[in-house]
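Board notes, transcribed. Complex of a protein with flavin mononucleotide.
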Amino acid sequence: MTEVFGTEFSSPVLLAAGTCGFGESVIDVMSPSEIGGLVTKSVTVEPRWGNPAPRVAEFDGGMLNSVGLANPGLEAVRDGKLPWMRRNLEGLPVFVSVAGTTVGEYAAVVSGLDGEDGFVGFELNLSCPNDSHLEGRPFCLDPGALRQVLDTMRPLTERPLLVKLAPNDPDIAATAVVVAEHGADGITAINTVPGFLTGRGGGNRVGAGTGGTSGPALLPVGLAAVREVAGAVEVPVVGVGGILTGRDARAYLRAGASLVQVGTGSFADPRCAARVARDLVVRGAVPLDRRATPDEAAQ
Ligand SMILES: Cc1cc2nc3c(=O)[nH]c(=O)nc-3n(C[C@H](O)[C@H](O)[C@H](O)COP(=O)(O)O)c2cc1C
């Protein structure tokens, strides 16, 4: 058992936002007890259909997605998805991921769900390359907007508030400090890297043109981000990006992560997170209260 954010996790391995829906696919391939928890698809106030097809394209290092935050919206999550998760996920710790284009939209989702049971906390997706605030950039790349969203969100809930940061942040450590100073309980690093792929004929491989890159190519990017963030703030860090094996997860824990998330790995092997969790038990994960020195993390 691992205690983080005041919650007991049976494993430090969670499923990443947007890669497991609301857990429906989980129960087809594993028992919830085989993983530590999950983060839902990002929820917006209104339902979103997402971007035009095709929404995903594979390449040697992983995949590019332009899903565009397709989700059923706040009401359907409150009335349908949360009750389903309460009935079927056997008390598995769940974080609800929240997205929006204005501070008010984030606030509406957080206050609209906070009174419900069946989840532990919120992960604010402030870093989606397929989305942005109304001025154009993701919130986390605009310190003013980031402060505003956190100052508005913090009084709305006593649950843990995680903030998910972007890999294409020129100073992710400084951003993490702002996030921690403005009341976040934890930081998730990283979201997808903005990307673009063309096919043989030169046409775009995803419908929206650009998308987010994920999968094995992100492993060193995510590790570097976690190491920087963990060195800059005291709040727990959740590491995500390119994890396919127990070895990858251990590298994140050594770099300073308290928990990790598996995303694209689940598309290649739906049991990937359970396998990674099992591997950490068999080989022994780094104790969670210990952070690596920079030299150890670099190894
Ligand atoms: C198809 C797809 C959909 C995603 N949707 C979301 C989302 O709704 N919210 C979010 O915060 N991150 C989303 N992500 C990003 C993942 O949670 C994760 O941060 C990223 O993919 C890096 O991890 P990975 O290399 O293990 O996939 C999505 C990723 C993929 C591949």
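The longest strand covers residues 94-98. The chain has one domain: 2-298.
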